From TrEMBL:
It comes from the Eukaryota. It comes from Neoarthrinium moseri. Keywords: Membrane, Transmembrane, Transmembrane helix. This is Urea active transporter. It is a multi-pass membrane protein.
Length: 664
């Protein structure tokens, strides 16, 4: 094993042997892949879900139920960086860090329900966001959005792999580059075979296991004699605040929401996450895959349940690290963690080792592996859809058959899996780490927020505004980011561009300026787009095994002519989604944190205990939503699979309608 070198000249011996790292990354990766391939075969045999058809491979026949949608939504944001990053900011800023991390995710996940149901209502045959853009704005707008979405997906995957590889290396001594290249391998295999349904099922399995381990940590933390109880943890954190006061926090305490740096991080995080969600074609793919009645409740339940994971895990494990750092239990004892170790996301692995020894290290290794592979799967299928539908089908083969599209879907899965590993390797050797990408990614992911939302919800946005505003917004954001770094720190480097203030200014400019540009440009020549025109172009592939040509045409004609009926049917879901999105944002960003920030309140022991207990109860509820809700909601299809296994009759292939039982 290779010990990790530290700036103080010492080293931290990995708690697990290299063989364990390879066993998990390669062995378990391939095991899960083969299990998912087998499950895909079972679903084809028992309920006719044939992944050799495009509609099944890319959209799961638009029939995924509420339970599995909720689990997939949690998984989509259960990045390795969510767990590593929330503990990082908790260690740096105290209780405010994990709270703002969680508040930077849940509101926009719930808001996405508004966009998802609007897409279901206006363009039910879509496979990707980019198809919507192309129909409304033509070739130029389409190409601009292809670039924006690919940038978003590339930055997202690099962020995941950098943090996960560093943590796996710290835990096992496995070389960072080996982890970077091996992590996507199993993902490529099961996504190649199973498509988005395999992604949903893997999301479910991984998220269930991860939430079980998180719940284990909520118990194990208080079994450590030095901690013992929430009250014991409180005493340790009070002492840590006296010994190592936090700059910018009220009285230097870790136990206050009055933290200047934490709220600046929160601003970066909420804007960057709006960009990551709205410009991530994977989120749209999952919305298109969900049954119409499952989109809104699935995203609302998933978004609210997700909040507890970075809040609870980030608070508990960062405070365990702060409390135990001065004891022989901690891996870096007698020294504190270096800034490099913290920035590489090693607070969580080290805290797990401190509270549970080698078992804690193994648990963190497993959840990081499962989180990164699950989210990479979603990113891979998203980029594959862009390569297939928006590049190959649109610009290289307009007459592409179902078989052609499936072949290019497979090619896209492999290409992006390999590219993501290579790009992350380049960043690693460029001395870029998790902390840098966590702060700056919003500069590149945010320019499309307002133009995309306006594309789906505002019929007045003009083509010129849609094309020009995100490009101007990105140029503005990058200029402000780099200019601020030079003005404040005298240089443009990885170090200066990763500082808080340049990233705040750059992300804010990148996110908000396109909204202004779009409105101003639109005022000169506003559009008046008719939403029903989205249905005039045929997008969905029919399945020739079960329908005739005339039936296929009739199906599309019916969809094109039922806009008003669907609008009435789905409008109430849009109202519910809008109300929940507004309530979630106000609750998480105004009513809960701002009075505590403004008052300068420092947690007393009773309040801290209530804070910790509420977060633990919430995360156990999240475990129920992620693990048991899909089983309850999908019980009908589970019974259908069981009956299919007992029957010797071969089922008919599933069509692209809504006859498939929704759920699992």
């Amino acid at each position: 094993m290779l010990p990790l070198e530290r700036r103080d000249g010492g080293s931290v011996e990995p708690p697990l042997p290299q063989a364990v790292g390879y066993a998990v990354v390669v062995g378990i990766g391939f095991l899960i892949a083969f299990v998912m391939v087998f499950v895909t075969y079972i679903l084809k045999r028992t309920v006719g879900e044939d992944n050799k058809t495009t509609e099944m491979f890319m959209t799961a026949n638009r029939s995924v139920g509420t339970g599995l949608t909720s689990s997939a939504v949690i998984s989509s944001w259960l990045w390795s960086t969510a767990m590593l990053g929330s503990t990082l900011v908790g260690y740096n800023f105290g209780v405010a860090g994990p709270f703002w991390f969680a508040a930077g995710c849940s509101p926009m996940i719930v808001f996405f329900a508004v966009l998802g149901i609007a897409c279901k209502m206006r363009i039910p045959e879509a496979h990707t966001l980019l198809e919507i853009v192309r129909i409304r704005y033509g070739k130029v707008g389409h190409i601009v959005w292809i670039a924006l979405c690919l940038i978003n997906n590339i930055i997202a995957v690099a962020n995941m792999l950098l943090g996960a590889s560093a943590a796996i290396s710290a835990l096992t001594g496995m070389h960072v580059i080996a982890a970077t290249f091996l992590l996507p391998v199993g993902v490529i295999l099961y996504t190649f075979v199973g498509g988005i349904k395999a992604t949903f099922l893997t999301d479910y399995f991984h998220t269930f296991v991860i939430t079980i381990i998180i719940c284990f940590f909520t118990i194990q933390t208080f079994l450590v004699p030095e901690i013992g109880s929430p009250a014991g943890l409180y005493e340790l954190i009070v002492e840590a605040g006296r010994t190592y006061p936090v700059a910018g926090n009220q009285d230097g305490s870790y136990l206050t929401m009055t933290s200047k740096n934490a709220i600046l991080f929160g601003i970066i995080h909420v804007l960057a996450n709006f960009g990551l969600v709205i410009m991530d074609t994977g989120f749209f793919a999952k919305a298109f895959s969900a049954a119409p009645e499952a989109v809104v409740p699935g995203y609302i339940v998933g978004g609210i349940a997700y909040f507890a994971i970075p809040w609870c895990l980030g608070t508990l494990m960062s405070f365990a690290a702060l409390g135990l750092e001065g004891t022989a239990r901690f891996p870096t004892f007698p020294s504190r963690m270096s800034t490099t170790e913290v920035s590489n996301g090693l607070v969580l692995p080290y805290a797990a080792v401190a509270i549970a020894g080698r078992g804690g290290a193994a648990a963190v290794l497993l959840i990081i592996f499962m989180a990164v592979t699950s989210t990479i799967s979603a990113q891979v299928i998203a980029v594959s859809s862009i390569i297939t539908f928006d590049i190959y089908r649109q610009y290289f083969n307009r007459e592409a058959t179902d078989r052609d599209v499936i072949r290019w879907s497979h090619i896209g899965v492999v290409i992006f899996g390999l590219f993501s590993a290579a790009f992350s390797t380049a960043l690693y050797y460029g001395k870029v780490d998790l902390g840098w990408t966590l702060y700056m990614l919003g500069v590149l992911t945010c320019p499309g927020i307002f133009p995309t939302v306006f594309t789906i919800l505002w019929k007045r946005q003009s083509k010129a505004a849609a094309v020009v505003s995100p490009l101007l917004g990105m140029a503005t954001g990058i200029a402000v980011w780099i200019g601020s770094a030079h003005a404040l720190y005298g240089e443009v480097s990885v170090a200066s561009t990763g500082q808080t203030l340049p990233c705040v200014y750059g992300t804010t400019a990148s996110a908000l300026s396109p909204g202004l540009y779009s409105v101003v440009i639109t005022l000169f020549n506003p559009s008046n787009y008719k939403w029903e025109e989205f249905r005039s172009e045929r997008l969905a592939f029919d399945q020739p095994a079960t329908t005739t040509a005339s039936e296929k045409f009739a199906s599309h004609t019916e969809l094109a002519s039922t806009y008003q009926e669907d609008k009435v049917r789905l409008k109430h879901w849009g109202t519910i989604a809008g109300a929940w999105a507004l309530a979630t944002f106000i609750g998480h960003w105004v009513l809960w944190p701002l009075p505590m920030y403004g008052s300068g309140y420092i947690f007393g022991q009773g309040f801290f205990e209530a804070w910790i207990i509420l977060s633990i109860v919430w995360v156990w509820g999240t475990m129920f939503v992620a693990g048991f809700f899909p089983i309850i909601d999908g019980w009908k299809q589970l019974k259908a699979v069981y009956k299919g296994l007992r029957s010797s009759e071969k089922p008919e292939a599933t069509s692209s309608g809504t006859d498939t039982p929704s759920g699992a």
